[in-house]
Target: Acylneuraminate cytidylyltransferase family protein
Amino acid sequence: MSTRKLFLIPARAGSKGLPGKNTKVLGTKPLIQYSIEFAQTCSEEGDVLCVSSNDEEVLKVCENLGVTPPFVRPEELATDTSSSMDVISHAINFYKERDVHFSEIVLLQPTSPFRLESDFRTMVELYKKSNCDMVVSVKEVKENPYFNLFKQDSEGYLKGFVDAENRVTRRQDAPSVYAYNGSIYLFNCNAFEALNGLGFEKIVKYVMPDSRSVDIDTLIDWNIAEFYLKQSNENN
Model:
């Protein structure tokens, strides 16, 4: 049975929030280069690095780094409505047709540049120790459905996400809640295919600090990333 991993970096063209962000220079290198170098550092013999993109500028960056994307992503998988599930399935099927199979997928969004190798190594250990489908990087969030998150009902009034008797009046009494930070998804390939588009049930979290949980989608996000990068450089 194969024990190789597919390091998959999805990087389509056409960002609306920050056009050209995947190849925009952050610090001294294009944004996507952070993810490519991370994958190269963390991969082992037999693992495969795949950049899935329809962006000519992304493909040029890959070429400059000596990385050859195995395909140009089909345009129907590069629209605003294209799902990550479809992009992942496309990559898996591309390799299966060439009799290349994977035990795990490591999904790395190029918009999250501040991962550490130690983050990945710890996630691998969590994956090995847990009977889970996926280990995913998260951040702890201040907004909390037990305290200060609401939804609007059919009459236009705000209602709590949980029943009144389960709500708390002090933030410190609320249980911790987490959000995917978009940095690292490590999941079982067979489980992904078996679910056929449904979400994983057995998910284990790996908590990362805010300084490594930046997910760049807008100019404000970019400015925050520059701040953390400058701070990191000054501390080294």
Notes: The first helix runs from residue 31 to 42. The radius of gyration is 19 Å.
